[in-house]
TrEMBL record:
Protein name: Delta-60 repeat domain-containing protein
Pfam families per the UniProt record, alphabetical: DUF5122
NCBIfam families recorded: delta_60_rpt (TIGR02608)
SUPFAM superfamilies: Putative isomerase YbhE
Length: 452
């Protein structure tokens, strides 16, 4: 089934005309006018420079927002906004705080995870190091985390490989970028830190390049204090095994509430999902034929998944990109808790969608509403041009466009916020917020909130 951004061609012409006129009238009304200026907060603001580019965003109680920014002065910041978009002066020093990296060094942050005890994790990578910082509610380093009780943890590639056996090994960003430094959440190969309310475990995944054409996926689990959890695989980590040395690339990781670990990876041209038990063994009750693995069918030329979320029933929704000769469309997949394709989602098949007037989209973020509707944030091109704008689409639980969103189209293209989409979140009342940076005012960071 191919979903399209426009109306069904089976609708009467008069109905299409009425809908088009109605959409034109409300075209400017998607922004939440109670947020920032016309629904947009554009940097600079007090204590936040124009070049503090937001990389990840999360919602807090009282409809406040927390985000991590990457600055051109090689500093990371945590920034907290009030519901109206102003800086929350009750947080840290005037609404922002520098992420503590004194021991591990500056890194590119691409993940922000909120913990049940009001702490939060910032994680990312640079060169051959993965880094995680845990901070307490006011932004100070968490003294219960890290070797030096300074809230900082980092791991080098040779914490997991023998340097004599694998000289020149390195963490690798993705097969698409071919870079070692992970700068983009869109093609992130992991360091998606995930915490659980059970015991504070953190699970992350990375691709390690060990040879010219030998790429391996590692899954790492840390204890609450940031040390390797040796109850997982006997060492605190496992490598995804395969029958050959063909290239494998990690795409993301989810941690279930029961402690089982879901890892998305690409191998032999296909995206797969594998589930591990708490001890690091493969959960053979999951997926196809007792293998513990689900294979996502390839559509057209190639496909990948870049963002995923757990459903309340233990299933998974994931979004990514599908390439064909005509361009790139959005791929959506829904799995049940046992790894089968959800029968109530697109008749048990992955779904493709395109957005009328916008082409070659790149999925950056995904979120689930409490009613099961799916939000996807993307960067898209306008027509055949190379102009990038931000787009948010909303889908029903069955994978079809939610036509109550975006004036009947199921998506909103934010032409005034051209640039680079980074992260998306949803408030309890279903208002959507996203962050990114682009040429709104120079190469400036921005946060946008739109109506439900």
């Amino acid at each position: 089934m191919l979903h399209c951004g426009g109306l069904s061609t089976s609708m009467p012409t008069w109905w299409s005309l009425i809908m088009s006129q109605s959409q034109a009238k409300i075209a400017g009304n998607f922004y939440d006018q109670t947020f920032g200026i016309g629904g947009v907060v554009t940097f600079p603001i007090d204590n936040v420079a124009a070049s503090d580019f937001p990389q990840a965003i999360a919602t807090l109680p009282q409809n406040k927002l927390l985000m991590v920014t990457t600055g051109d002065d090689t500093s990371l910041k945590m920034v907290r906004l009030n519901e109206d978009g102003s800086l929350d002066s009750s947080f840290a020093s005037g609404g922002s705080v520098v992420v503590p990296t004194s021991r591990i060094g500056y890194f590119y942050a691409n993940s922000l995870d909120l913990l049940p005890d009001d702490k939060f994790l910032v994680s990312g990578a640079i060169n051959n190091t993965v880094a995680i910082v845990r901070q307490v509610k006011d932004g100070a380093p968490d003294p219960s985390f890290g070797d030096n009780n300074d809230g900082q943890v980092s791991y080098n590639v040779y914490n997991f490989l023998d340097s004599n056996s694998y000289p020149g090994a390195s963490f690798h960003s993705s097969e698409a970028e071919g870079e070692q430094v992970d700068k983009s959440t869109g093609y992130s190969s992991g360091v998606r830190g995930v915490a659980t309310a059970l015991d504070g475990q953190i699970v992350l995944t990375r691709t390690i390049k060990v040879g010219a054409s030998d790429f391996r996926v590692i899954v790492i689990r840390l204890s609450e204090n940031g040390s390797l959890d040796e109850t997982f695989g006997g060492k605190g980590y496992v490598f995804i095994a395969s029958a050959s040395s063909e290239e494998r690339f990690s795409r993301g990781v989810l941690l279930q509430q029961d402690g089982k670990v879901l890892v998305f990876f690409k191998y032999n041209g296909y995206v797969h999902v594998i589930r591990y038990n708490q001890d690091g063994s493969v959960d053979i009750s999951y997926g196809d034929k007792g293998t513990g693995i689900v294979t996502i069918p390839s559509i057209n030329l190639s496909s990948t998944l870049t963002s995923m979320a757990l459903k309340p029933d233990g299933g998974v929704v994931a979004a990514g990109d599908n390439s064909s000769v005509s361009g790139r469309s959005t791929l959506l997949v829904s799995l049940t808790s046992n790894g089968s394709f959800s029968k109530d989602f697109n008749e048990g098949q992955p779904a493709l969608s395109v957005y009328s007037g916008y082409s070659n989209n790149v999925v950056k973020s995904l979120a689930l509403q409490d009613d099961g509707r799916i939000l996807v944030g993307l960067a898209v091109f306008v027509g055949d041009s190379r102009e990038l704008v931000n787009l948010v689409a909303r889908y029903l639980p069955d994978g079809s466009f939610d036509t109550t969103f975006g004036g009947g189209k199921g998506f909103i293209a934010f032409d005034a916020t051209e640039g680079f989409f980074r992260s998306l979140a949803v408030l309890p009342d279903h208002r959507v917020v996203f962050c990114g940076y682009g040429r709104v005012s120079g190469l400036a960071g921005h946060v946008v909130r739109c109506l439900a």
